[in-house]
Design goal:
Elements: H1 2-20, H2 24-30, H3 70-77, H4 84-92, H5 94-97, H6 111-121
Protein name: Cytochrome c
Pfam families: Cytochrom_C
InterPro entries: Cyt_c-like_dom, Cyt_c-like_dom_sf, Cyt_c_1A/1B
């Protein structure tokens, strides 16, 4: 049992470490893969996907004037909040986390790219201004 707890602790530490070490500058470059459908920054508007200002800490499916899939709305209605960990899971495999989401993107398979893009997204407040 102690060994399992140590392994679980190590995995948690590594996972948390990845989020803490994300490089926002690299994430800005990775975000170009997302920019066809999503926007961030002052004046960001919904596109094919919702604008992502203030996404970390935001309730799922809560951007005004964006038509979410029923599956994503259900997640938001359940009180789901986008944490760095939840975003990491979603960005790795969107349809694996939210079946029937309308997001067609297959996901970011590289852990460092996910950490970097999450670090980049964290730099934007809900108003789109740099934090």
């Amino acid at each position: 049992m102690k060994r399992m707890m140590m392994v679980a602790g190590a995995v948690l530490a590594l996972t948390t470490h990845a989020f803490a070490d994300g490089d926002a500058a690299k994430g800005e470059k990775v975000f170009k893969k997302c920019a066809a459908c999503h926007a961030v920054g002052e004046g960001a508007k919904n596109k094919v996907g919702p604008e992502l200002n203030g996404i970390v800490g935001r309730t799922t499916a809560s951007v005004a004037d964006y038509k979410y899939s029923p599956a994503m709305k259900e997640k938001g209605d359940e009180g789901h909040v986008w944490t760095a960990e939840e975003l990491d899971t979603y960005l790795a495999n969107p349809k694996g986390m939210v079946p029937k989401t309308k997001m067609a993107f297959a996901g970011l398979k590289k852990e460092d790219e996910r950490a970097d893009v999450i670090a980049y997204l964290k730099t934007f407040g809900a108003d789109g201004k740099a934090q």
